[in-house]
Amino acid sequence: MSSTAIDAFLQQHLGSGWQLQPVPGGLVNRCWQVDHQGQLYFLKQQGAARHNGVDRVEEIRLQRALYQHHLTVDIVAWSASYELVLFAWVDAPTLTQSDSTTQLRVLADTLWRIHQQAPPLPHWSLSSRVDNYLQAIAQYEAKVANDLAAELAGFAPLLTAWDQHPKVLCHNDLAFAHILMSQPPRVVDWEYAGYGHPCFDLASSIAINELTEGEVAVLCEHYSAHSLKHSGETITPADLSDWRQLIDLVNRLWFEAQRVQRTT
Q1: 139-192, pLDDT tens digit by residue?
Q2: I need a labelling partner for 189 at 20 to 30 A (CA). Which of 111, 169, 207, 244 fits?
Q3: Domain-by-domain residue ranges, the chain?
């Protein structure tokens, strides 16, 4: 998207007199802080979603619903293509800046809060999502796609368990950097959220935050403190072992899909 299109979007929704300051974004997104006459906003330019299985319309709807439960940030405006989204600015550090003890406690608490939400959102299939990644890769590198598909076949029982287990809302990308330490903590970057298996979400957070085995045990303890009260069940590191291997493979599929997307 050109700078002219961004200028036009901000002019439409804020008027004149704004300034942009780049802030770190992800692999496929660009972000800025917008200062409009002393009022701050967060502007996100979202990358193409054609290989990601991301539904931008549902992503906006989800975040607006979760804002009512103080779980995310208010959306001020978005472009017709959903490529540009303007958020209210939250003046709070991310969980990345906290000590390890706080990080693990807040991460577990936030995962549990997310898993208790039930917004209106279409269910999705993990099997279909990874098939979408494989098809994207196969268009350009058939051997890579075939090798990954053979590896994925070994996880068929786990994919079946994902489909059959009662679904909870999952973030699926809950990095420390995606949790703002406001009161209460608020979560950003919901593009991969959807109903799924809680162990998949926990395993995803373990991978993206590069937790040690000791930290995984503490995370499970904090999360189980909630689940034990709710259902009498606990989650142990052993319960997550296979899910963590699946997450590693799904992440590799995602990165390969992004790579071929950037080269086409």
Answers
A1: 999 999 999 999 999 999 999 999 888 899 999 999 999 999 999 999 999 999
A2: 244
A3: 3-88, 95-262
Burial label for 53, CB within 10 Å (0-12, 13-18, 19+), is buried
Residue for token digits 């279409």? Answer: 122
Q: What is the CATH number of domain 95-262?
A: 3.90.1200.10
Q: Look up the pTM and report it.
A: 0.91
DSSP string, 179-220: EE-SSS-EE---TT-EEE-HHHHHHHHHHHTT--HHHHHHHH
Interacting residues of 145 by C-beta distance below 8 A, sequence separation 6+: 134, 135, 137, 138
The string over 224-263, giving b where at least 16 C-beta atoms fall within 10 Å of a residue's C-beta and e elsewhere, is bebbeeeeeeebebeebeebbebbeebeebbebbbbbbee
CATH of the structural domain 3-88, one choice from 1.10.1060.10, 2.30.30.60, 3.30.70.20, 3.30.200.20: 3.30.200.20
Please report, for residues 19, 30, 174, 188, the alpha-carbon distance to residue 209 in angstroms, rounded to integers and kept in the order given: 32, 21, 8, 15
